[in-house]
Amino acid sequence: MLDIARRHAAKLIVKGKSMVSEEIEFNHAMEAAGVGALESDMGEYIVQLAGEKPSHIIMPAIHQTKQQIAKLFAEHIPGVTYTDNVDALIQIGRRVLRENSRSPTSASPASISRWLRPAPCASSRTKATDACVPPCPRCISPSPVSRRW
Q: Does the predicted TM-score (pTM) go above 0.85?
C-alpha cells in the first residue's frame, strides 16, 4: 500500500473498517511514512479521534457514551458545539466523513485535525450541529465513490 501511495504522491488514504489493518497497525505505519490514514467508518472514526483502539469488531466505539462522543466532536471538529443529542451527533459525523471522502487530496498529514474537519456548507443552518435548512444537494447526495457502485 505504501508503494501505491508513493507512486501517486498521496498524502492521505481514506480507508474502510478493517481488523487486519488494525492488527498490523496500518495507520501508524502509513503515518510514519508521511501518509495519513483516515477512517471512513463512523465507529472507527470516533476511536481514531479519541486516539484509542476499537473495543469491538462490529461496534468499535461501543465503549463510548454519547457525552464522550459529544465532547470529542466539540474538541476536535471546528465549528461544532457540544451537544449530546444522538441525532445531531450522527449528522455531524456523517457530514465530516462525507466531506473527507469527497476531497481527501486536500488533506495534509501534518495535522490530523485538518483531516477530520468538514468544509462549511453553503446552506444556512441555525447552528453547527443542525442539518442544512432546507437540505442542500451537497449534504444529502452520496459521495462520489458510492455513485460509481
A: no
Angle CA 47–101–119, to nearest 5: 90
Q: What's the rounded Cα separation, in Å, for the pair 19 and 37?
A: 14
Amino acid sitting at position 54: P
CA 36 to chain centre: 12
The stretch 103-118 carries a mean pLDDT of 44
Report how far residue 141's alpha carbon sits from residue 67's, in angstroms, rounded to the nearest whole number.
Answer: 29
Pick the closest to residue 53 from 16, 77, 99, 22 (CA basis): 22
Cα distance between residue 127 and residue 49, in whole Å: 22
CB–CB of 15/21 below 8 Å?
A: yes
Residue 17 has a pLDDT of 79
Q: What integer pLDDT is reported at residue 36 of this predicted model? A: 86
